C-alpha cells in the first residue's frame, strides 16, 4: 500500500499526516530525546509525537530546530494533559506547549484522555486555537465510540485523528469502523504491545516467512489496516528497523493470522475507567 517512509494520509481537513512517526513517550528530555529524533529524521521519518505529559517538549523543539530538514516537512503532534483540561486551562496549556516546543504553529493538537465533564470545554478551546491558525489540525486520543458521539454532537470542528492503544491483542474493530465511517483517522499508540507478543511463535513464523522482524510485521499490519502508527524507541537500530516496513506486503492470510491474536487486552488504562 504505502510506497515510502514519507507517504502520508490526507486528514478530513486536507492536512497530510505521515503514516509512520516516532513516539517519544518516556524518552528523557535533553540528549536522549534529541538523539532519537535526530536518528529518526536521518532515517526518513517526518512525524514526531510528543505530549505535555511526556515532559520532553523542550528537547523535541530543540531537535527540530537543530535539524537541517525544513520545519514545514516535519509533522509535530502534542497533547493537552488531564489536569489542564477545561476551556481556559486548555488555552493556557496550549501556549505552554507552544513555548516549550518553540514552534509558531503545531501540526496536530490532541485531547490526551476524555476527562469526564471537561472534554467538551477542552474541545471548544481547541476549536478556537484551530480557527486562530495556531494549529493545523485538532484531534483526540483514547476516545471510545460514546465519547466520540458525545463530542460530535457538540463540536463545530470534527476531530481529524483518534489516537488509541491498538495492536494485535487489541484490534478495536468496532471503534476502527466507527472512525472510518466518520472520516476520523485512527492512530496507534503502543503498536508493539510494549514487547509482550514479539516472541509469539505465530508472529515469529510470519517474520521468518517475510524475512522481517516480528515488530516490522506488526507495523506493516498497522499500515495495511490503514492505521497511522507511531512506535516509540530511543535505540537507533530499532528506530531504523521500525522504519524499514515499506518493501514488503502481508497477504490476506497473514492479516487473518494477526487478527486472530485479539483478546481485547490493554497494556495501558481503559478510557472508561481511567
From TrEMBL:
Pfam families (UniProt xref): Aldo_ket_red (PF00248)
Keyword Transmembrane: no
PROSITE patterns: ALDOKETO_REDUCTASE_1, ALDOKETO_REDUCTASE_2, ALDOKETO_REDUCTASE_3
Oxidoreductase found in the keyword field: yes
Domain NADP-dependent oxidoreductase: 26-262
Classification via CDD domains: AKR_AKR5G1-3
Keyword field: NADP, Oxidoreductase
Listed InterPro entries: AKR, AKR5G, Aldo/ket_reductase_CS, NADP_OxRdtase_dom
Protein name listed in UniProt: Aldo/keto reductase
Source lineage: Bacteria, Bacillati, Bacillota, Bacilli, Bacillales
Amino acid at each position: 500500500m504505502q510506497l515510502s517512509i514519507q507517504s502520508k494520509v490526507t486528514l478530513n481537513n486536507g492536512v497530510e499526516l505521515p503514516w509512520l512517526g516516532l513516539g517519544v513517550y518516556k524518552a528523557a528530555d535533553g540528549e536522549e530525546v534529541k538523539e532519537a529524533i535526530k536518528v529518526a529524521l536521518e532515517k526518513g521519518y517526518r512525524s514526531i509525537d510528543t505530549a505535555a505529559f511526556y515532559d520532553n517538549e523542550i528537547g523535541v523543539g530543540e531537535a527540530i530546530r537543530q535539524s537541517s530538514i525544513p520545519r514545514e516537512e516535519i509533522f509535530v503532534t502534542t497533547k493537552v494533559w488531564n489536569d489542564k483540561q477545561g476551556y481556559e486551562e486548555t488555552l493556557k496549556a496550549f501556549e505552554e506547549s507552544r513555548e516549550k516546543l518553540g514552534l509558531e504553529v503545531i501540526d496536530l493538537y490532541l485531547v490526551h484522555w476524555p476527562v469526564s465533564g471537561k472534554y467538551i470545554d477542552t474541545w471548544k478551546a481547541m476549536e478556537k486555537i484551530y480557527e486562530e491558525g495556531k494549529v493545523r489540525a485538532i484531534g483526540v486520543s483514547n476516545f471510545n465510540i460514546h465519547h466520540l458521539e458525545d463530542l460530535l454532537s457538540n463540536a463545530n470542528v470534527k476531530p481529524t485523528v483518534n489516537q488509541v492503544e491498538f495492536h494485535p491483542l487489541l484490534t478495536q474493530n468496532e471503534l476502527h469502523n466507527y472512525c472510518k465511517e466518520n472520516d476520523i483517522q485512527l492512530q496507534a499508540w503502543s503498536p508493539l504491545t510494549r514487547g509482550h507478543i514479539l516472541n509469539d511463535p505465530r508472529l515469529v513464523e510470519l517474520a521468518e516467512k517475510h524475512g522481517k522482524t516480528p515488530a516490522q510485521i506488526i507495523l506493516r499490519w498497522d499500515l495495511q489496516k490503514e492505521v497511522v502508527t507511531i512506535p516509540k524507541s530511543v535505540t537507533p537500530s530499532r528506530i531504523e528497523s521500525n522504519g524499514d516496513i515499506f518493501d514488503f506486503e502481508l497477504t490476506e492470510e497473514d492479516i487473518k493470522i494477526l487478527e486472530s491474536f485479539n483478546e481485547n487486552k490493554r497494556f495501558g488504562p481503559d478510557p472508561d475507567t481511567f
